[in-house]
Amino acid sequence: MNKSLFAVIAMALVPFYAYGVDGTVLINQSTVMATGGFPYKITQPGSYRLSGNLTVPDANTTAIQVLTDDVTIDLNGFSIVGPVVCTGVPSVTSCSPLPTNGGFNPNAGVAAASFDNIAVVNGVVRGMGQFGIILNGRGSIVRNVRAMSNGFIGISVNAGSTVSGSTATANASDGIFATQSTVSGNAATQNGGRGLEVDCPGSVVGNTASGNALGNLFTVGAGCAVANNAAP
Fold first, then answer.
1. How many CA within 13 A on the CB side of residue 171?
2. Beta strands in 105-207, from DSSP E residues, in sequence order
């Protein structure tokens, strides 16, 4: 085979990545399409950063799927946007369109199954079919994220994780759901379930919650440090 042709074929088989000057992998609508469309799959540890908004085509689609430990995703002030709109006053009573793919599908802005040490920071996740963000591994971080109008839970994290400085507004179910984690300095309003739900032990400090359909702050079990929350 001609060496030049072989080189072209080899390059075509390599996933397309765009890098910032600091070596961070950049993600935008164009780079997602260049790697095969949604979900954008992260298979290597490291730093990733949005360089533009991401818009998924329907409520059955996950935007970013994390398939490895040790990943930081900086939304960089941009948004991950789906088509779901949740309505109701003072709290959500309905969302549309709903997913049609059945079973448990994350249909999320950012999803990580059993992978640890995932961070999602600094941006908006809105209108996804189910979860805004779901991180089911240990030791994850969600910081300075706005999760709104998602078809199930706004932000969901597992053991040893931290959710801080974030807002969850008008999601169909809980605003923030956390298991054995630290939840601090967040705001949860007008969600169709609970504003903040934490499975203890954990730390729930300095949050505000109001106007949520099933209660503003709910802890399950013993061992939670609960202090300085404004959640009547």
1. 33
2. 110-112, 118-126, 133-135, 141-148, 155-157, 162-164, 167-169, 176-179, 182-184, 187-189, 196-199, 202-205
Give the HSE-up count for residue 46: Cα atoms under 13 Å, Cβ half-sphere: 14
pTM for the model stands at 0.91
Radius of gyration of the chain (CA): 18
CA–CA distance, 91 with 103 (Å, rounded to integer): 26
Task: Supply the DSSP symbol for 176.
Answer: E
* pLDDT digits 0-9 by tens, 158-174: 999 999 999 999 999 99
Length of the chain (residues): 232
| Partners of residue 153 on adjacent β-strands | none
* 3-state SS class at 13: helix
In this structure, are strands 79-81 and 118-126 parallel, antiparallel, or unpaired? parallel
Q: How far apart, in whole angstroms, are the C-alpha atoms of residue 150 and residue 152? A: 6
8-12, 18-22, 213-217: least confidently modelled range: 8-12
CA atoms within 13 A on the CB side of 36: 9
CA triple 211-213-214, angle to 5 deg: 120
What does the block give as tokens for 104? 């448990």
Residue 73: Cβ within 10 Å count: 25
- The residues, ordered by sequence, that sit 6+ positions from 121 with a Cβ below 8 Å of its Cβ are 72, 73, 74, 75, 141, 142, 143, 144, 145
Q: How many angstroms separate the CA atoms of 132 and 111, rounded? A: 9
